[in-house]
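Researcher: Hi, I'm a grad student and pretty new to this. My advisor asked me to get structures for two proteins we've been looking at. I'm not sure of the right format, so I'll just paste the first sequence and hope you can take it from there.
Model: That works fine. Here's the first sequence with its structure tokens right after it:
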Amino acid sequence: MPVDKITMFKQASEFTSFHKKLGILIKPWLDKSWTVLDVGCGLALLDFEIADSVKSITALDQNEKLIDEINSKIDSDLTAGYETAGKIFTQCCDAKDIEGEWDVVLMSFYGAGFEELKKLMGFARHRVIIIVHGRAANGIFDPPTLKRKRRTAEELEEFLEKQGYRFRKTMAEMQFGQPFRSIDDIHSFLQNFKGIDAENILADSCLKNDDGEPEEEIEIPFRDEDNQFDLDRLVASTEERFVKTDRYDYPYYLPRNLSVGIFCVVK
């Protein structure tokens, strides 16, 4: 059965407090009088965490389904009395069609090419905040947005230095794994991956060395004698990596060690 990636992404964010922790890291670079443009906002989970620290946020994405999800959360939060949700305004369009100017441009795992990045940075009056992967990753748990080429912290830093931009950098190691409600949910999740993707699931759950490589070898026979993908073998190989939690709502958790680079570019 296909998994609902949007729901699972929300569950991972809630369980690990990933976006809440990201928000804490970038709030010192914001001002309550500033407007923010979040380019390629996805589900805008980070925007809801930082809305209390800015004047307003334009959450922009070209995926209509994601924009509908954001609007639904805005409505539900306002109904529940969370007034900061009223600072978030959605816009459904491609980044190349952006018009206007904001105090801050935010790009969280957006993956823009360097030429596109330079153009987007031009919409910021004061600062550009860019959040990227600290090292190359495989994308198994990526947000449910369009697949784009990843930019790592090392590549972004090299680009900014060559362009002469002034910036500050923060690196952080964070958890952004996947919680599960039942063994059946785990099986449904694993059924969505084949071959090398299955290997990457296990690699993402390992501790990493200083070079970002898994500290253990991942050599699992995912195919049977007829060279067909063998889900049972994947389940057996993955089972020992799941953590049993003390939570009744999510009793199982598959760790993911995520390295994050946060750049604040001063205009």
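Researcher: Oh nice, that was easy. Here's the second one.
Model: And its structure:
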Amino acid sequence: MKGSASFLKKRSKKLLSVVLCVAAIITHAKAEDYPTKPLSLIVPFPAGGRTDLVARIVAQNLQIAIGQSVMVVNRPGASGVLGANAVAEAVPDGYTVGFFSSGVVTAQYTVPTPISLTKFDLVAIVNADPAAIAVNAAAPWQSLKDLVIYGREHPGQLRAGIIPGASAQIFGAGFARAAGVSMINVPFKGDADGAIALAGGHIDVHFAVPVAYKALADSGKVRVLAIAADARSPLYGDIPTCKENGVDLSIAAFHGVFVPKGTDLVLREKLAKALHTALASPALQERMNDTGAAVVFLDGSAAQRYLEQQDATYRSIIDALGLRAPQG
């Protein structure tokens, strides 16, 4: 009986090994054929905001490069966590892809019910821009210096639009600390909501990146006072820097393409290659330039190093400012 049981156990192990090997071959074959159907690009913020805008530019050119339709799906809520969860919980077959901002990093620490970066595989970084500070076009502050003087003379009176848990909250808190002002934070679901509120005079100042204000600035409804960069750039309309205005602040936000953890490497490499082709397109670069968003491409280990550096930078700022949310 013992010999028979031992034989059956060995046979079962061999059978399991064969099954796993066949499954691996089938999975690899599917990855080689990828994609055979449309992709869903999940944006965890409302339509009209900077992440949505950049995602749609990338998606339009990605579908040409990859040979399948790429549908942008907005899943806002909980500072981007709802949309991120939708990607993390999807089948890791490359057809549900996340287009995330740096909010996916900050939400790990600033949201009571966070999502961890360990639930994703990073495919590529595709964009990075400095923080920007904007006011209503009719506001009396013509420069960041003017705003800072007012803020210091009227503590707690400036109404600042932010996205709780996202990079905009870190921008706002970093600015307040560097400028020595206190503000009232007014929460919004996305950049578009806050920027529209700013244009309507419902808040006094708003924090995002330059692309979030391009249309409203061009139509004369908002005025971007400064960018948190080390130097001016024609890409952002030669806007003055915070440092030129006496505020020592340099911080940026990025956009990256993510897939669920465990997605086949061959598939990820094919998607990264298609993204690289899309980003090299003159049509995409022209649209991004017109929008005021910088094209960046990092994949593989370079992208992972960049993400880890951003994670460390944001985490240190969040801890220094005491912005960690209690997490159960």
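Researcher: Is there anything I should tell my advisor about the second?
Model: You could mention this: Residues 32-128+253-321 form a domain with the D-Maltodextrin-Binding Protein; domain 2 fold (CATH 3.40.190.150).
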